[in-house]
């Protein structure tokens, strides 16, 4: 059947060739000097005007949001890539004495070494860290390098975050290394791996920032990257969380805000900015480097969006603006949160919903679980008892979270991640498992008293 | 060793695209039908005694929908009066052939059939329109006209509801399309299982959670007769990109389709975002967010030899109207007649729903 919907303008505006023919020298639209860069279709800028435009855009992002107070300590996540490099430079410029409308926060930088999940050797990891350390040292800001393995430690052991002066070697305990490795190896698909590392990274950043007494984390996500993330989040069931994942400030953590000050820049603008300033971003491999375009959902989405963008130059900004119009409903502190990504749970859905339809399909086509038809909760197995047999003791000898238990306290998107894992037993970071177990117990308590709770 | 069906002892012959479970033919039919039944019950799609028009194009979705609804109506005693309703866009070599399939379905399923044509409603067939506007924006005309045509046909038949064969893949694709087009109003309502409850005829999609692949599978094993040719005017390039993206996602993770629908269901629009207010068209009384509905604008463009009218920006239409170049005369008389007649039946319908 024809799938054209009513009133749909079928074809968006295609790339226009513009007023100028190829090879012709264009004037800067601001000052009339000869232009050095075309930002989009007909907007040509000279070098000077382009850089002014960038700094203005960057500063006004802070100005508009009024999120960061004068003299506030902020932690900047630095990956060494294009947008981190530009972010570092923009902050440097913004804090310098000669800057008009000086930025007034106090930044420290942190690099998270993810070599472990990229299958790098100790030497390769050290080398990367050396390069990053050199860059950060040069900037004159305080900094440190933390390895991703730290996430496997129980939360209280990361009580301090100290800034370092120079890089000696990575401090990674063998136990953490082993644990991260087995967690990583149990994730079967690249899509789930990408989600996993994203959540781990963001959890680690938050706990580093908390330990160091910061209340904001700045990250270098560009608009291009966020548009891709928006679409790939939709494809991975995270529609409700889009304002967190792509907004200027991610407010899902009550005490810590993740801020994205370069989100008004496209990837191209960032690259041009770096080129004009002769900055040299590091080229570090990522999970899907050199992978096929259908290797993971995020990779596929990237190919899809950049492909469309080439033909329809408004693609990225349209996706981006769609995201701007979304919000997260009922965000009070009482709301139940996903025990992994910390976003509010999106699994309390009406009977007629995608989630329940899926659970029903699964229950229909598998013999074993026919008792769980309907309802979002599919964990009604009886707790194992001490052996008295009458259930009188109400204890469990060994509280082990099953995948089903865990899924119950996770959001839809994180459920998809653990669905792609061989097992969750003792694999997730200890602090995740602890808080998840607590949430499961609370949920069971709530179920018991459910009949006596009045609707709020 | 042959794989056994996950539910009975028979040999499995298929792997469900939706869940990956191996099933035999009969267990698959059962699961497929039960799921549609559950969707209908959970979302309260129907009430006993209702007259329901099935939008029938002769394609796989509507053919399987007609068959399944008839089966479930008998099995679970929904007490529905089912009618097949087809729109004849007037596309030679495509719609005339698919309508033959609908006519065969009518006999096979013993359901009444009503065909309503663009020619009688608007005075134009799609073939004529394409001659005027070319192959670039013709799908816009067809899409806008079809929606109204289906509603008008349904009103003539005095039905309570229209059901369409939109499946999970279609809805996921629409979610992605609306994001790509920045259409927040449609993004908000495109995952609703029933739409148009306020004023217009309610439309619902019982296949909202049904995978396209399973619909094809069902039709294949039931040996249902359907028409599967692409529209000769179609290949809508932009929607095609979204479609390919969905198919590629499904190949990476089969649950992606339903995951996208979940995303769509859970999105909330900021309160301060202005959404278009649904009103009625000042010329024909059909629901519209503009003063004059899109169908009237497009039709006026066709009749005045300005086929681009309604394709571009709305302010151009206003400008021409202010200059007295359009919307001046008594339009296509046939169209007016039909529309006035329908207005009456719309009122009747509202009264009938009130009891």
From TrEMBL, chain A:
Could you cite one Gene Ontology molecular function of this protein? nucleotidyltransferase activity
Name of the protein: Cytoplasmic tRNA 2-thiolation protein 2
Q: Where in the cell is it found?
A: Cytoplasm
Name the family the entry cites: Belongs to the CTU2/NCS2 family.
Tell me the pathway: tRNA modification; 5-methoxycarbonylmethyl-2-thiouridine-tRNA biosynthesis
Please name one Pfam family that this protein belongs to: CTU2
- State the protein's purpose: Plays a central role in 2-thiolation of mcm(5)S(2)U at tRNA wobble positions of tRNA(Lys), tRNA(Glu) and tRNA(Gln). May act by forming a heterodimer with NCS6/CTU1 that ligates sulfur from thiocarboxylated URM1 onto the uridine of tRNAs at wobble position.
**A biological-process GO annotation:** protein urmylation
| SUPFAM superfamilies, per the entry | Adenine nucleotide alpha hydrolases-like (SSF52402)
A cellular component annotation (GO) from this entry: cytosol
Keyword set for this entry?
Answer: Cytoplasm, tRNA processing
The protein's matches in HAMAP family, at most eight in alphabetical order, are given as: CTU2
Q: Which domain of life is it from?
A: Eukaryota
PANTHER family linked? CYTOPLASMIC TRNA 2-THIOLATION PROTEIN 2
InterPro entries listed in its UniProt record: CTU2, Rossmann-like_a/b/a_fold
UniProtKB/TrEMBL annotation, chain B:
Which CDD domains does this entry report, sorted A to Z? CTU1-like
Q: Where is the tRNA(Ile)-lysidine/2-thiocytidine synthase N-terminal domain positioned along the sequence? A: 52-230
Alphabetized PROSITE patterns for the sequence: UPF0021
Residues in Cytoplasmic tRNA 2-thiolation protein 1 C-terminal domain copies = 279-309
First-level EC class: transferase
One Pfam family named in its UniProt record: zn-ribbon_14
- Give the GO cellular component terms, alphabetically: cytosolic tRNA wobble base thiouridylase complex; mitochondrion
Q: What are the transmembrane regions? A: none
Record's subcellular location: Cytoplasm
Q: Name one GO molecular function term.
A: ATP binding
State the UniProt keywords alphabetically. Answer: ATP-binding, Cytoplasm, Nucleotide-binding, RNA-binding, Transferase, tRNA processing, tRNA-binding
Q: Where does ATP bind?
A: 55-57, 61, 87, 165, 170
Q: Which residue numbers delimit the 2-thiouridine synthetase TtuA-like N-terminal LIM domain?
A: 4-28
Q: Which GO terms describe its biological process?
A: protein urmylation; tRNA wobble position uridine thiolation
Lineage: superkingdom = Eukaryota
> What EC designation does it have?
2.7.7.-
InterPro entries from the UniProt entry: CTU1-like_ATP-bd (IPR056369), CTU1_C (IPR032442), Ncs6/Tuc1/Ctu1 (IPR000541), Rossmann-like_a/b/a_fold (IPR014729), TilS/TtcA_N (IPR011063), tRNA_thiolation_TtcA_Ctu1 (IPR035107), TtuA-like_LIM_N (IPR054306), UPF0021_CS (IPR020554)
Principal localization reads: cytoplasm
Q: Does the keyword Cell membrane apply?
A: no
What does this chain do? Plays a central role in 2-thiolation of mcm(5)S(2)U at tRNA wobble positions of tRNA(Lys), tRNA(Glu) and tRNA(Gln). Directly binds tRNAs and probably acts by catalyzing adenylation of tRNAs, an intermediate required for 2-thiolation. It is unclear whether it acts as a sulfurtransferase that transfers sulfur from thiocarboxylated URM1 onto the uridine of tRNAs at wobble position.
Family (UniProt): Belongs to the TtcA family. CTU1/NCS6/ATPBD3 subfamily.
What NCBIfam families has UniProt attached to this entry?
Answer: TIGR00269 family protein
- PANTHER family xref list: ATPASES OF THE PP SUPERFAMILY-RELATED, CYTOPLASMIC TRNA 2-THIOLATION PROTEIN 1
Identification of the protein by name: Cytoplasmic tRNA 2-thiolation protein 1
Encoding gene (name): LOC106179215
